[in-house]
Write a structure and sequence with these properties.
Elements (H helix, E strand, L loop, with lengths): L28 E4 L2 E4 L31 H4 L12 E5 L2 E5 L6 E3 L2 E3 L8 E5 L8 E6 L3 E8 L2 E8 L4 E7 L3 E4 L5 E4 L6 E6 L2 E7 L4 E3 L5 E5 L3 E7 L4 H10 L2 E13 L4 E12 L7 E5 L1 H4 L10 E4 L2 E8 L1 E7 L15 H13 L8 H20 L3 H18 L14 E5 L4 E5 L12 H18 L1 H19 L14 E2 L4 E2 L12 E2 L2 H18 L2 H22 L18 E3 L2 E3 L9 H6 L16 H15 L8 H11 L1 H11 L11 H14 L1 E2 L10 E6 L2 E8 L5 E4 L5 E4 L3 E7 L14 E7 L4 E6 L7 E8 L2 E6 L3 E4 L7 E10 L11 E4 L8 E5 L3 E9 L2 E8 L6 E7 L5 E4 L1 E3 L2 E6 L7 E9 L4 E3 L3 E4 L1
Antiparallel strand pairs: 1-2, 3-4, 4-7, 5-6, 6-31, 7-12, 8-9, 9-10, 10-11, 11-18, 12-17, 13-14, 14-15, 15-18, 16-17, 19-20, 20-24, 21-23, 22-23, 25-26, 27-28, 29-30, 30-31, 32-33, 33-34, 34-37, 35-36, 38-39, 39-42, 40-41, 40-43, 43-44, 45-46, 46-47, 47-51, 48-49, 48-52, 50-51, 52-53, 52-54
């Protein structure tokens, strides 16, 4: 089974300068910096099959995870879907079928598989069967199959986007077998070229000059006298179209090659696709090729008038020896910036919860990978809340896990049976043990699993270059396994998991399915490519970085077309799902995953893991709203029983207010998805609430960037992983200076960059006080455009905002010290630094043991019934359906309790308190439908 529950060639210098190699501890251990891998299968491990169906012409590492992979794994093959054609290698030859005019759709499937239907099978006059079909050669999106039975041989070449299939023969001639006699509308027995129709599909049959046909009028056609031959599926049955395709029918494709280039100045990825052809007769070079929507939408190539229908949408045709696509790279970040509207104390509490978790350290490559991914998002959030201890703990755990996996020998120098990577030289692949979901036996999902390892390593490399230098060779080995672009690298195939023509990755290693290969969790593929960007940037390996950028950008466009169909042009009307949960070669489905049909997971599998590399999901908020609405409908409401945190994060893209409301109601009680954390979910939701979604129309001349847009106000974010300041220029003219190894942001509201200058820092902070209040005053700040207001912080926590230069903080405890700072902000969202801290102690109280917090919306009262308890009441001005109290005592574990309604006044008593303990109290309450969070109140018992 495949999924769980659930190149201008870039000569990648994956083998970066290594540290001095250490001696092998066991025979078969290969050192890589401080790490190592094994060429010996670990004890008890299951290897993949040894048989590879290939001829002696195929040497080196064997590609897997391709649309044609079953040809290498099976005696013949399963169905293959290069589009527009579908093919299947069989004992009697190659079965050919055009799904285009027979694609059907229903509410959850766009179906275009072969099943038992075919238009015809091309075989050999010298034999009725072959013992096998073997891979005889391959290029970036074409494959060559060889059939041989003694002196009788047939070579077949076919590929992605090609309406042609090419044949060469020895020992006999082409023989085509049909279910029923085809209609012949052009040519005769004496002509080498026939135009035929079979079951509504039109084909050109192109024999060599001088060849003839026999069997016309029957179900078997034989092309006599041809040692080379080709067929082409035709868009129509006109003589003009047949003549056009005949122009290229004898120009056999012999090689295909893709190259990628990334232009940092324009943030543009150019993908160049090149065909090499051989003229079997005449001198024609080039071919006719069909482009997928993600290609023709991003290409200036002149198009022909011919089109094909496919399960990916309309394919448009062009001719020649090459074409290019150009796509904008919209940037990735190591983490979202510290711009959220969240409460820092709450975020800190979520960090504390994650810090308190324990992990056994055991598990397979996928689930250990999920743990690594979780830690990689937590560490920079802990940095932002100033919790250095937690940040270090998270990164140290990453190091511990990775170093365990990146060393093949144990302390005694013996080969480990667990937490080890093994290199299989037969296939040319790196397998981690324990394995899972067929990652060993079927070579499934390597990019899904290893992407998490690379992402976690990148987070460590961001702050610890020495560690990256020491252990980096093992990280680069994982990258070479999933996305090698060095064609001189004999250890690994070219782009194992990424299909350059389809524009996306494939998950199954063998593709042994009647529906072809498949890919479910497109977002985990994006996670792997983003990890390469971050790792490459952190380690100075621009080849790895640029490959990651190319794959990320291409797959993002493919996802938007084939998983999400954000433009609404590819899914047929009969397919009513808002998203594809799985994309197959022969179909698209939207109602299930490998493990469940649960709507939350059907939708969420193409979102996780949420990180700053997931901002591409925010580019089309109208679509996300449609997709979320469909999820709610399929689920029968918002009572989600799985992945609540992911759903609220997704909802924040189209409706952050509702996402916050959901979080207020459920955040404390829910359990985060295994690869996620409450801290990451809260951080994401409240960042999008503050700065909006990523704006793909504005790019930057650095790879680590994002531009957010909230109601026309843009926030420009860039991260600098170098040791020197950099200046980042955005495509609308905005310039942001970024210090070494840190974030910087700018803000603006229009073209040319808008306002990026923050107000001056407030000065002269003074106060007056009572036993229950502090009134602050300060000098007005200045700004190049104008100050819009001020933010009030108490002990570093934002408690309120004001447009005045005075502010009264009420509801304070008598005789209690408080510390305040103030920040100024302008209309564009630029925020000044904090003022100098102002410390003040409220006046002593006169007894009574009661404290009130009064606002226009509610009155909260704390009274002391006993020396060890506090009774809290909450009286809302508007009747509330519920009120929840949240509190911590001396900063310990947060408690969340539904208060008791006593005739409109909500009550809760906190017991077991000791004198001097400090309580942080706040409330969540419903008011006429929406939910609200109160400010935090600090009270000393």
């Amino acid at each position: 089974m495949n999924k769980k529950w659930f190149v201008y060639v870039l000569l990648i210098a994956m083998t970066v300068s290594l540290l001095p190699l250490q001696a092998s501890a066991f025979n078969g251990e290969v050192a890589q910096g401080s790490g190592s891998y094994s060429t010996v299968l670990p004890p008890g491990a299951t290897n993949t099959q040894s048989a590879i169906f290939k001829t002696s012409n195929v040497t080196g590492a064997m590609p897997t995870n391709d649309w044609w992979s079953s040809l290498a794994w099976d005696t013949y093959s399963e169905a293959q879907y290069p589009h527009p054609l579908a093919l299947k290698n069989q004992s009697n030859g190659i079965r050919i079928y055009y799904p285009g005019n027979r694609i059907s759709s229903n509410s959850s499937c766009i179906c275009g598989w072969i099943n038992d239907i075919h238009d015809f099978t091309v075989g050999h006059t010298g034999t009725s069967s072959f013992p096998d079909a073997k891979v005889d050669g391959f290029s970036d999106w074409f494959v060559k199959a060889r059939y041989q039975n003694g002196a009788n041989a047939m070579n077949v070449t076919y590929g992605h986007g090609s309406p042609y299939v090419y044949f060469t023969y020895s020992g006999g001639s082409p023989k085509l077998s049909f279910y029923t006699p085809p209609t012949i509308w052009s040519g005769s027995s004496s002509s080498p070229v026939l135009g035929i129709t079979m079951a509504g599909a039109h084909y050109g049959l192109f024999g060599a000059t001088g060849s003839t046909w026999s069997g016309i009028g029957t179900g078997t056609l034989t092309n006599n006298g041809s040692s080379y031959f080709s067929i082409a599926v035709l868009p129509d049955n006109s003589q003009q179209t047949l003549n056009k395709f005949a122009q290229y029918a004898y120009s056999h494709v012999t090689n295909t090659q893709v190259s990628y280039s990334y232009n940092a100045a324009t943030s543009e990825v150019t993908s160049t696709f090149t065909y090499t052809t051989e003229a079997k007769q005449g001198s024609q070079q080039g071919t006719i090729f069909a482009l997928y929507p993600h290609q023709w939408k991003n290409s200036t190539k002149s198009l022909l008038s011919y089109t094909y229908n496919s399960v990916r949408g309309t394919m448009k045709t062009a001719e020649g020896t090459s074409f290019q696509t150009k796509m904008k790279f919209t940037g990735v970040l190591p983490t979202l910036p510290d711009k959220g509207s969240y409460n820092k104390a709450t975020l800190q509490q979520y960090v504390n919860e994650a810090e308190a978790e324990t992990f056994s350290g055991s598990g397979d490559t996928y689930w250990v990978g999920k743990r690594l991914g979780k830690l990689a998002t937590l560490a920079p959030i802990a940095d932002q809340v100033g919790d250095t201890a937690a940040a270090n703990k998270f990164r140290n755990e990453i190091k511990t896990i990775l170093q365990s996996w990146f060393k093949a020998s144990d302390a005694s120098g013996n080969l480990k049976s667990q937490n080890v990577f093994y290199y299989n030289s037969n296939w040319g692949t790196l397998i981690g043990y324990p394995d899972s979901y067929g990652s060993s036996g079927e070579l499934n999902d390597h990019h899904f699993h290893y992407g998490y390892f690379i992402k976690a390593a990148a987070e460590v490399a961001r702050v610890d270059k020495a560690w990256a230098q020491s252990w980096g060779p093992m990280v680069n080995l994982l990258i070479r396994d999933i996305a090698n672009t060095n064609r001189s690298d004999s250890m690994f195939p070219f782009l194992r998991n990424f299909d350059p023509y389809a524009g996306h990755s494939w998950a199954s290693g063998h593709a042994r399915f009647g529906d072809g290969n498949n890919n479910e969790s497109s977002s985990e593929g994006m996670n792997a490519w983003a990890a390469m960007v971050l790792w490459g940037q952190a380690t100075g390996n621009t080849a790895v970085r640029d490959t990651g950028i190319a794959l990320y950008t291409n797959e993002m466009n493919a996802i938007n077309e084939y998983w999400f169909d954000v433009s609404g042009t590819n899914f047929p009307a009969g397919f009513t799902r808002s998203t594809a949960s799985m994309v197959w070669g022969g179909k698209t489905v939207g109602d299930g995953t490998w493990w469940t049909g649960n709507p939350e997971e059907v939708h969420g599998i193409n979102w996780l893991p949420f990180s700053a590399a997931s901002l591409y999901l925010t580019h089309h908020p109208a679509y996300t709203n449609e997709n979320y609405t469909a999820l709610v409908s399929e689920n029968g409401g918002t009572n989600f029983d799985a992945w609540e945190d992911l759903i609220y994060m997704y909802r924040a893209i189209s409706n952050p207010a509702e996402a916050k409301s959901f979080w207020s109601a459920r955040g404390a009680a829910l359990g985060a998805e295994a690869g996620n954390s409450k801290a990451n979910a809260y951080h994401w939701i409240y960042n999008l609430d503050a700065v909006g979604n990523a704006d793909p129309t504005v790019t930057a001349n650095t790879p680590l960037y994002a531009v957010f847009n909230k109601n026309g106000v843009k926030t420009y974010v860039a991260y600098n992983m170098s040791n020197s300041p950099i200046t980042v220029t955005f495509s609308d003219g905005t310039v942001v200076n970024v210090p070494a190894n840190s974030f910087n942001t700018g803000n603006g509201g229009g073209g040319g960059g808008g306002d990026t200058q923050a107000p001056s820092v407030p000065t002269g902070l003074t106060s007056t006080k009572t036993s229950s209040s502090v009134t602050l005053s300060w000098n007005a700040s200045t700004d190049n455009v104008g100050v819009a207001g001020y933010e009030i912080y108490r002990y570093g926590i934002l408690i309120d905002t004001t447009t005045s230069t005075t502010y009264t903080n009420v509801g304070l405890s008598p005789g209690t010290p408080y510390s305040y700072t103030v920040r100024a902000k302008d209309a564009a969202g630029n925020v000044s630094g904090h003022s100098a801290a102002h410390n003040v102690t409220t006046d002593s109280g006169s007894g009574g043991g009661q404290q009130q917090y009064v606002t226009s919306d509610f009155t909260a009262t704390v009274t002391r019934p006993s020396s060890s308890s506090e009774k809290i009441t909450f009286a809302p001005a508007t009747p509330a359906v519920y009120v929840d109290i949240h509190y911590t005592v001396n900063g310990q574990n947060q408690q969340n309790v539904r208060m008791v309604n006593n005739n409109g006044v909500w009550e809760h008593t906190i017991n077991n308190l000791s004198a001097g303990q400090t309580m942080d109290i706040w409330f969540t309450y419903e008011k006429s439908g929406p939910q609200y969070d109160s400010p935090h109140y600090i009270y000393q018992h």
